[in-house]
Write a structure and sequence with these properties.
Layout: H1 6-17, E1 27-30, E2 37-41, H2 46-55, E3 59-62, H3 78-85, H4 90-108, H5 115-123, E4 127-129, H6 132-152, H7 158-166, H8 169-172, E5 179-182, E6 192-194, H9 204-212, E7 217-220, H10 225-233, E8 239-242, H11 245-262, E9 266-270
Parallel strand pairs: 2-3, 2-9, 3-4, 6-7, 7-8
Antiparallel strand pairs: 1-4, 5-8
Length: 279
């Protein structure tokens, strides 16, 4: 049977995203070689690492970082790139993400980033975290669904967009259905932008920047209720469609699982990955 190293597991994810280098939220927490049986999940804790060791897996792959050693909040800067791609001027895009980056930096200074990694080290269980590269893969997949809907339907509603996502295995199998943080199901979908793969979901400033520059519907995994209420109070026009973390994270993880299996590796999804057909 084929086998890989933990470094190769990271490289395979970067290949899918088309990236040359791994961001700070994507790293090897405990290195390993001759890996052929992998346990992969959205969230991995200490008990999961112990379970993997007990069950005979060779490595654990986590989507959300199971540890980090660099400024992971820098990943939030990717929101500015996505804003610019949607038509927001670069200076406005950076202004929209500045406060969110600072907020994350302060919050992450309180996080015990070495907890899960230390258990992996004690158990000698190879552990890898791969976040924003696979988040970007999921964002592109969701954008593809939105773009294909627009290509075959000249004036789709937000409900049509919801149904298009519902036909995808990662959304159909998600335990939480799509919801709205802003707008109504009967609204025109119009120009759709998917905001994901930037370490943390968009906030008030980012959503307002999208809507101020021609985006009609913003698709993301989650959106803070306080920010949604503020947009409503201010009468901001636009729709925010929430697909949930299970759906969008799985949209990025499923191509990765298929990529690993194409290398001849055995992969078992758990901890929130939905829609996997085992192929």
């Amino acid at each position: 049977m084929a086998s890989v190293t933990t470094e190769r597991l990271v490289q395979l994810a970067l290949e899918l995203a088309g990236w040359d280098a791994a961001p700070a939220d994507t790293s090897v927490q405990f290195a390993g070689t001759r890996i052929s049986h992998i346990l992969a999940g959205l969230d991995v804790g200490t008990a999961d690492v112990f379970m993997a060791r007990q069950l005979g897996y060779h490595a654990v792959v986590a989507f959300h970082p199971a540890g980090f050693s660099g400024p992971v909040w820098e990943g939030y800067r990717r929101h500015s790139d996505q804003l610019v791609a949607a038509g927001v001027p670069p200076d406005e895009a950076m202004a929209a993400v500045a406060e969110g980056m600072e907020r994350l930096e302060y919050a992450l200074r309180r996080v015990n980033a070495g907890r899960v990694a230390s258990v992996a080290r004690i158990l000698e269980m190879p552990l890898v975290s791969i976040y924003t590269p696979l988040g970007e893969v999921g964002r592109r997949e969701a954008q593809r669904v939105a773009d294909e809907l627009s290509a075959r339907n000249s004036d789709p509603t937000v409900a049509d967009l919801r149904d298009a996502f519902g036909a995808q295995p990662y959304a159909h199998a998600a335990p939480v259905p799509p919801g709205l943080a802003l707008g109504a199901w009967g609204d025109r979908a119009g120009q759709v932008a998917v905001s994901y793969g930037a370490y943390h979901h968009p906030d008030y400033a980012i959503a307002r920047a999208y809507f101020a520059h021609g985006v009609d519907t913003l698709v993301c995994d989650a959106f803070a209720l306080d920010d949604a209420c503020r947009l409503r109070r201010e009468g901001v026009r636009g729709t925010i469609l929430l697909l949930g973390e299970h759906a969008l994270a799985s949209a990025g993880m499923l191509p990765y699982l298929r990529h690993l299996r194409a290398q001849g590796l055995e992969v078992t999804p758990f901890s929130g990955i939905v829609g996997d057909d085992g192929a």
